[in-house]
Amino acid sequence: MLMTAERQTKSQLVLTQNSLFPQVLIDGDRESFLEMLDWLSNPADKLPCTPTAQGNFPPIYALEWRSASVDKLIVEVRDETLYFKGPEKTRSWLADTVQFLLDDGREHVGMHVEHYPGHPYLSEDSVPLILTIDPQAH
What value does the mean pLDDT take over residues 120-129? Predict the structure, then answer.
């Protein structure tokens, strides 16, 4: 897998596409979620991640942001990448969501990020995410 202009990270998020439910698990320590927050402020290139495979699903090697002229954020897995596609306001919402997780302060904490009827930012076509801060994630 060749990625151009990769960011160098000390700690990487661990991404797993769940084989039982249509969702992606994003695990990491505080440092890796801070790196994600930094990436969201300027997602000019892919954010490399540590892939794990589950079942017949291929591993996910990176996060990528794509600006799109759609109303809401679409999160999808394609080509071994977790894509976030949407307008600028949804990138800000996603950054606020990650910051909320970091501000919790507990050593282990998680949250579900998924569409519900009337969601102001997330498209119903998005794969659900589970974000988990775990100091043991690697």
Answer: 96
